Amino acid sequence: MNRPVKSEPLRLTTRNQLRGAGVVTAALIGIIWLQEILDQLIFGGSLDAYGIEPRQLGSLSHIFTAPFLHGDFTHLISNTLPLAVLAFLTALRGVGRFLLSTLIIVVVGGLLVWLLARGGDHLGASELVFGYFGLLLASAWHDRRPVSILTAALALLLYGGALWGVLPHDPHISWESHLFGFLAGVLASRWLTPRRTGQTGRSAARF
Fold first, then answer.
1. Which domains does the chain have, with CATH numbers?
2. What is the pLDDT of residues 39-48, one digit of tens each?
């Protein structure tokens, strides 16, 4: 009588995915906290000058720094938990995909803020928070696998109310970063989710 073969490779893959997602999420949170600690204790908050100032040429390169800066520790604390949760859920699909998605959100979202946002200094990880949120929701639509749908449902259950943040309601909050981060996440999902061809059963990545 044959014994069923244990799915050790599957368990190993799942364990590696969890470990990888945990490592990159911890690294991301560590980077933004270390930056803010150094900014407050050593630089006196001067690093906030590297936020995005819309339509100012000297600020264009700040699209790469703004999502990792915060005005103060209160601002940072309010972003930390949703960033950690949504980044972890996003990274479960693979570290490489997570890093590429993050780059797309930073570049596309940041460029839209630079081009279209109100004047001021736009900074904060909420661009990433809404970017990962948009990516998770859009991936459920593009991928339609049970794991993608369940992950999106979990994100929606935890932070669905945050979607109101893409609308202008507080002049001191960069709703533009929320909106454009979300749209960049949707775009990242469209580009990075394999396209299923119903006739051949094969899929091709869209970049």
1. 10-204 (1.20.1540.10)
2. 999 999 999 9
